[in-house]
Each structure stands twice: as structure tokens, then as C-alpha cells.
Amino acid sequence: MTYLLVYVGTANNPADAEILNGVINKIAERNKKQDISGFLFYKDGTYLQLLEGEFEKVNALFYKIVKDPRHKNVTVLLENKIDHAIFNDYESGFLVPKDKNQYQKLNNYLNYLKLLENNEIDCTISILGSVISKM
Questions:
Q1: Which residues of 37-62 are buried (b: 16+ CB within 10 A; e: fewer)?
Q2: Entry pTM
Q3: DSSP category for residue 87
Q4: CA 86 to CA 131: how far, in whole Å?
Q5: Residue among 26, 41, 32, 46 at smallest CA distance from 99
Q6: What is the distance between the alpha carbons of residues 66 and 92, in angstroms, rounded to a whole number?
Q7: What sign does the CA torsion over 87, 89, 90, 96 have?
């Protein structure tokens, strides 16, 4: 079983793009080393992140995120046990869309996942699509 957690949060001090990209790259590398897959989407001071992996690892990471003074209003949108990771094989396991092309690739992947007709995945995709469209 894989644990999936989706949350949104607000940046206390929205950083400029160069600083943010450096931080995001480190986050992606660290998550991959911990066998945590998923993606982080950031726009206009709002984070949306999907994390999936072993329960203990994802939970420990989320606890750090909640305690991080750079974040506020961290809210869990979805947490669930799933049969297998949705993003494990996508973009080396952890995606951080930094431009419109990568964002479009993420949308295309989400649309592809809908074709699998898996109720577990469909619920997750619906929530992600709804939140991303409002960001």
C-alpha cells in the first residue's frame, strides 16, 4: 500500500522566481531520495502538493511542512491509501512544473490517468484538477 496526501498552503513571503526555483529543485531531489513521488505546484503564493510513498515518510515530511515558518494555512485536501503510486514513474518520480509546457504536460498526464477508469485515481484527479484550475 502507498499513502497519498494532497495539501494546499500559502507562502508567508512569496519569493522571487529564481530563489523559488532553487528551493523547489532541492525539494524534488530530497523527495526522490526518500522514495516520495508526486508533484509540487506553486502559483501566486499558493502551493498545491501531492505526496505519495510510505506512510511514515510522507507523514514525517508533511509534519516538517506544517512546522516550516515559510508556510501558513496548510490544509489537507485528501489523504488515502492507494494500491500503487500514481506519479512514481512520471518525470523521474517528482514533478515541479516551472513553465506552461510542464504545466501542460501535467494536465495531459492527469487526463491520461482519467482514462484508466480507476475510482481511486479519479477522485484524486478530480480534486487536483479543480484546485489547479482555480490557482
A1: bbbbbbeeebbbbbbbbeeebbeebb
A2: 0.80
A3: S
A4: 18
A5: 41
A6: 25
A7: positive
**53 phi, psi to nearest 5 deg:** 165, -160
For cell 499558493, name the residue.
46
Which of 77, 35, 74 has the alpha carbon at shortest distance from 55?
35
How far apart CA 18 and CA 124 sit, in angstroms, is 30
C-alpha closest to that of 71 among 38, 99, 48: 48
pLDDT digits (tens, 9 = 90+) for 20-35: 666 777 777 888 888 8
Cell numbers placing 29: 531531489
User: What's the pLDDT tens digit per position in 82-99?
Assistant: 888 888 766 545 566 667
Grid coordinates of 3: 499513502
